[in-house]
Amino acid sequence: MKYNPKDISVVLLDGCSLVFEEFIAAARYGAKVVIDPDAYERMRQSRALVDKIQSDGRIAYGITTGFGDLQKVSISPEMRDTLSTNLILSHCTATGEPYSEEIVRGMMILRANNLLVGLSGVRPLLVEILMKMLNKGVTPVVPCKGSLGASGDLAPLAHMTLPILGLGEAMYNGEVLPGAEAMRRASIKTVPTLLSKEGLGMTNGTCAMTSVGAIACYDTICAAEMADVISSMTIEGLTGIRSAFDERIHKARGHVGQITVAKNMRLLLSGSEILDNCQKDRVQDAYAIRCIPQVHGAVRDALLYVTGKVNIELNAVTDNPIIFPDDEAVISGGNFHGEPMALPFDLMGIAASELANISERRIERMVNHTLSNGLPPFLTNDAGINSGYMIVQYAAASMVSENKVLAHPASVDSIPSSANQEDFVSMGTTAARKAGDIVQNTLSVLAYELMTACQAIDMRKQLNSHGQGITPFHKLIHDRIREIIPFYDKDREIWPDIRAIESFIRSRELLDMITEKMPDVHNNNTWL
Q1: Are 147 and 273 in the same domain?
Q2: How many whole angstroms separate alpha carbon 416 and alpha carbon 429?
Q3: Pairing relationship of beta strands 10-13 and 32-35 according to DSSP bridges
C-alpha cells in the first residue's frame, strides 16, 4: 500500500477522487467522511433537471415510466414519488447472513460518492443523511445474498436505503434495532418518501459488489505481503537454497511481480547462519520453495490489475438513466452492469487461492520427514505418542480444497430476469463474495504456515546441523510468536494456538512489523 489506511482520519468525497486506501480507511477503520461543497451544486442541477423533465411531460425511463420490463407503463405525476419509494419496498428481497458493518459502510460511501457526481437526479439531502449515518455509526442491516450484479445490486442497496425511510433494520452501538429507532437514537431525521428517480438513484449501481470486492482486495494485498515474509521463515526452517532468488534469473523473465518477490526474498533471507551453512546441501529445492517469486509474483500482478479496476469503480457513475444537465439529456444505458468488476473479482479469488495452495505445500514439506531435509516427523520430538503438527496440515488442506471449489468463476454464469429485458447479468456480487471467503481461508492457511515455520526453526536449532542463527527479522517475528504461543513440545489442545495466530495475522501486527523493521521489503510492496 502507498500509505496505511489506519493513518487516515478524514476522507473527502467529491465524486471523482476517492482512492483505495481512503475507501478502506472510511469503511473499515471509521475515518470521518465529509462532502466537498462543490458537489452540492452539481446535485442540485441534476435534481432540477428531473423536475423539469416531469413538468415538461417528457418520457424518461424510471422518472415517468416504470422499471425493467415495465418501462412501457406510463406513471401519472401524482404517483411518481410513490413509484420511487415502492422500488425500495419491493426490491429489499435479499437473504442470508448480514454483511459485515465494514462492507455496508463501504456500500454507503460508494453510493454517496456516485451521487455526488451530479448525474443521478437525487437530492443532496439523501447524501447528507448517508454521511450522518456513516459518521454517527448507524449501519443498515443488509443480507448478503440476492444480487445478480446487473441493474445494479438492487436487493442489497434497497436494504441499505430502508433506514433512510425509517424502515428496515440497522446496527447502532452494537445493537440491531428497527431502522427508525436507530435513526432516532442517533438524532438523524428520516424522510417519509423518496422523490421521483431517487429510488433508482439509490439502488442502481455496483456498490455492494465493489465494497465486498474492494475490502477482499485489501485483505488479499495484505496476505500477499505477509506471504513473502512467512514463506521466508519456512525457507529457513527447511534450509532452502538462496540461488533461486538471484536477481539475474528474474530479470531474464521480466515480470514485475516476480522481480519484486525475488528481491523481497533476498532481503528477508540475508544474515542467516543456518542458510549460510546449507547452500551446498542441494542444487535446488522443490517448486513450493524455489518458485515462490513466480507464484507470489503472479498473484501481485493479478492484484495490480484488480486494484486498477477498483480505483476506477470507486468514482464511477453506475446509475441508469444518467442525467446530463448541460444539454438536458437523459440517456438509458448499462453502467449498472457488473461485468467490469465481476471478471477482476473472479481473478482475485483465483489469485488468493494460489497463495493458500502453495502455502499448504510448504506446510506439508515441514511436517513430512521425507521432505523436510532432516526435521523430525510432524515437528515433534516423540512422534507416535505425539502427533505434533500432523493435523495442522490437514486443516490447511481442507481450506485449500474449499478454495478450489470457491474459485470457480461466478462471471461465466447468467440467468435472465425481468421478463428477459435483463437477459445477461454479471453475477459480480457473487464473485466478490466468493473472493472474500477465499482470502479469509487463505489468511488462516498463512497463519498455519507461520506457526509451523516457527516450530520448524526451533526443531532445526535443536538439531544444530547448520548452526543456531536465524535472520534478525525472523528472530523478531519468532520471539513475538513465542510470546503468543509456546513451543509445541508435546501434544496439548492446539486450537488456542491456532486461534491466537489467526488473530495475530488478521490484526495487522505482522504488517506493522514489516513496515517498521524491514522498510525496504515494505516499500517493495507499494506496487499499487
Answers
A1: no
A2: 16
A3: parallel
Reduce the DSSP state of residue 190 to 3 states and report it. Answer: coil
Q: How many domains, the chain? A: 2
Regarding whether 137 and 56 lie in a shared domain, the answer is: yes
Q: What does pTM read for this prediction?
A: 0.95
Q: Tell me the pLDDT tens digit for each residue of 224-265.
A: 999 999 999 999 999 999 999 999 999 999 999 999 999 999
What does the DSSP 8-state code read for residue 162?
A: G
Query: Which backbone phi and psi does 152 adopt, to 5 degrees?
Result: 80, 180
**Residue 35, domain extent:** 5-205
Active-site residue among 61, 99, 287, 305? 61
Strands 32-35 and 139-140: unpaired
User: For the chain, what's the residue count?
Assistant: 528
Say how many C-beta atoms besides its own lie within 10 A of residue 395's C-beta: 17
Tell whether 177 and 323 lie within a shared domain: no
Which residue bears the cell 510492496? 525
What is the pLDDT averaged over residues 425-439?
93
Given 205, 228, 263, the domain boundary residue is 205
The domain boundary residue, chosen from 172, 205, 238: 205
Is 61 an annotated catalytic residue? Answer: yes
231 and 358 part of one domain? yes
> Tens digit of pLDDT for each residue in 180-231?
999 999 999 999 999 999 999 999 999 999 999 999 999 999 999 999 999 9
Same domain for 226 and 174? no
